[in-house]
Amino acid sequence: MAEYRHYAIPDEQWEDFPNNLPPDTRVEGMNREHHLIKPQDDLEISEFNVSARDGHPVLIRSYRPSDKKADELIPLVIYLHGGGFVTGGLETDDRSCRAVALRCGVVVLNVEYRLAPENKFPIGWQDSYDVAASPAAQKQLSVDPTKGFILGGTSAGANFTAGLSHFFAGHDDPTESSEKLSPPLTGLMFIAPSVCHPSARPEQYAERILSVDEITDAPGLTRKSIDYFAAKYGAPPSDRRLSPLRFPSHAGLAQKALFQVCGWDPRRDEGLLFEQLLKEAGVQTRLLVYSGLPHGFWTTCPDLPVSKAWEEDLVEAEVGLVSWSNSPWGKRPRSYVIESLNEARPPNRPDAYIIVLGILALIVIYPYGNVPAVDAYFFGVSATTESGLNTIDVKALKTYQQLVLYFIPTVTNIGFVNIIVVVVRLYWFEKRLKQIAVEKDIEAQVQRSSGRRILGKLADGGVGEDASSAGKPRKESQDHRQETAIDDNKRVENAADAQKIAPAQIVFAEGTRPPRNEKALRVPSPRERERGRPLEEVNDVMSDEDDDKIMRITTADYEPTGLTRRRTRVGMSGITSATSIERVASSMFVLGSDPNAHRPQSRRSGSMSRHSMTRMPYLSRQATIGRNSRFYNLSAEDREQLGGIEYRSLKLLLKIVTAYFFGLHIFGAICLAGWIQTADSKYRDYLAECGQDKTWWGIYSAQTMVNNLGYTLTPDSMITFQDATFPMLVMTFLAFAGNTIYPCLLRLLIWTMAKLLPRNSSMQEPLNFLLDHPRRCYTLLFPSRPTWILFGILFVMNFVDTLLIVVLDLHNPAVNNLPGGPRVLAALFQAASSRHTGTATFNLANVHPGVQFSLLVMMYVSVFPIAIAVRSSNTYEERSLGVYAPDPEPEDSTSAVSYLRNHLQNQLSFDLWYVFLGIFCITIAEADRIMDQADPAFQVFPIFFEVVSAYGNVGLSLGYPTVLTSLSGQFTTFSKLVICAMMIRGRHRGLPYALDRAIQLPADVLSEHDGKSVSVAWSEVEKIDEKANLKRAHTS
């Protein structure tokens, strides 16, 4: 859930795992080892078997306090270990089981259910069901479930617990007969629970389960390992035994439930949501959230203080679970555990950045004593929001205060903020790439290794032989166990998993099977063959990801409507470089579509740009691109290639935007400071009258135009310079380039570089990626069509504004005092300033009322063009902004009508109530002056103008006749604070409602959840040996 993302901020010890751990910290991996019981004086520990429904003996280890009499009936706890359904065992949570049994006075049963891939779904689930429902087990243990009957587990064990509790409560499901357990469960224990397959999230909860997509590379559990374990387990994603969250009701599961959720865990949101649902269903819950800690941290590093404290929390909470009554849960957890998620949380929006810098400006400006506190804060907010309204003449400030107003707008400028975003993304990209390199090394080692044997020791210290059958007595077979050590990052190899399936369209003749231990022949793709790449032998090994996969054949139309010839694209979800020869041959010889295949209906398959694909030869042939740069049918190798090109594009982009931002400041400062040195004496004399150094004026004026701040060191803004052609041209360009048409100029710069650089330059690939998929890398870089639309909207708006100023004030001495050319240029400058800058070349109080109203409208809509472009090209917001109807296929984002209409409707409903509220508050506070007939300059329209200017972060003001400040300088303290609220709120109205792709950290989300796969036709193919040569083939 989005509001709990801050719990994923890594704890310092775990951030760069394992480098930040204390020296000599013991790090353990999860495995299937089984050891002889280690005696403990105060516990009676034994092992016995419970027969599953198929007769298999399920091994149970029981723990009972020694101080309990043999005939004393005590509560029962059944514990199911974790391990992703494929690893783990009795040793995994042995220490926790001992602690719970001893300190809670209960019998704990530690269940060793059968594991995948040797025992696919639902074998492990049924083993757990049969043990929990076994009356024989309860009878021989001297337990009384009516005094307390708790079922619980960790991770996969918690998944079993969630599913079993529904069946034991009588919830109907066609997959398994449900029968109410008697006596019923009194308590449930969910430790780092998983309750739903990522691809089976119920639609009503899709926006509440986000962590599985956002936390992809945390220690202990990654998104890749989740998918791996699920594939080995083999359960249908929507089966409620795997995804119990899909049960329509969660009522009556138990009286109490304990949840221990890790904050830095991809399964976090499932646990938080499931806790809320159980609470709503009447279950008394206790929730412990371990902020910044990863999945299973107590198992990975059991000796850390935080792991020992976790065990203490478990035991303390277990006391409350065991109790039949509604007694208190026990002591409140320690400070690093958040028990209630309703406590105050740190702001997770950009508002905090603006608010903090505004307060910082107050702290720096106010102490000198020449500015009242409210005005110092007003300056800080106006500078951080780049509004430019002022309650005191800027030239009256001291130089250090002017410097504050120079640097704060620079660091809050949208260009600078996005530079920081790119730097942060690159930092995490590099960390992720280093992690991938380590994973590749481990994977290579695992593939070269066949695993190790772990034999149980006999009582005399000897080593027994392997058990030949499961039917032998447990005493005999248990001491001869053979297990394969498995870690979360390692793979379980099982030859039985490999299924040979007949190919759909290509059959290899008998006797043409290539001999083993020969090199594979790599057949180049058609695009590579066109470039002259020959057949070549490679030492290629199929990865484990190729196991148990079925090839997808995706038919995509590339020909005009009416033509029958179509290209069939052959690929595999998760395919690696070790593509089988049959698959390659299929892609070469099959021209028609599979007769058994269903033609894809999704428009996404047709939305792929052939031009884009030709500039992306590093992607496999089955990859397709949908709208807004969503990729579909990406293989594992594709995701790595895409991540690499995106990383290089980000590095190049960082250089470009940094040079653009600071280069623009330097260019403006050189132009204006240089011009004023030799300018007409009237300009230099005016600066001298204002007490301002002419060089400092040039530097500061360049900053105020690039940052669109609007503060000037001259009290009449730029009216004195309205006839100076050179500064008018330079400052108009800086105003446009710094904000209004920044996305257009940035794309133009990248396009120009791509055209001027040699075609074989190493920069061509990242430049083309930035042009083809800009919103994967940067918030303010858009595709070609939206960029042209943005430019067209801005051109029309500024043209209309300039035309109105010139035409409506044709006979106005406040405007027509200038010759024709300078008048048009000054009008263009004023139009540009009404977008965001807030400087003025005319006394706005004296211009035509129609011009005043047009400026008011332009200030309000100033953010619309860029905001619309940002949102329309952001794939995470397609529904939240109402661009698309809920069910039909979406319209193309480049439709001009929908592009404007939908966003304008949404923005108006978002903005207007806030603007009117601000005007209403100020008119109440300033009612006496508004109603004063002797003060005609203080009326409702100038206040309306001031509020809209503040909300639009523009800074234009109709002013007041007797002062050289904005009208805000005449407001009361309350009204000034209202204006500050308007500026802060307006600063954030252009931001996306959802997390933007360009500010997401890179991860493995480029897989299936980066976009649902297009409709595909399935075909079975036959797997071949890892190394093969192409001999001959014939079509069937």
From TrEMBL:
Residues 603-613 have a biased composition (Low complexity). GO terms for biological process: intracellular potassium ion homeostasis; potassium ion import across plasma membrane. Residues 458-485, 509-534, 592-613 are annotated as: Disordered. InterPro entries: AB_hydrolase_3, AB_hydrolase_fold, Cat_transpt, K/Na_transp_Trk1/HKT1, TrkH_K-transport. It is a multi-pass membrane protein. It holds the Pfam family TrkH. The chain crosses the membrane at residues 352-369, 403-428, 652-676, 726-750, 788-808, 851-870. Keywords: Ion transport, Membrane, Potassium, Potassium transport, Transmembrane, Transmembrane helix, Transport. The keyword Repeat does not apply. Residues 473-485, 513-534 have a biased composition (Basic and acidic residues). It is found in: Membrane. GO terms for cellular component: plasma membrane. NCBIfam families: 2a38euk. This is Putative potassium transporter protein. It comes from Botryosphaeria parva (strain UCR-NP2) (Grapevine canker fungus).
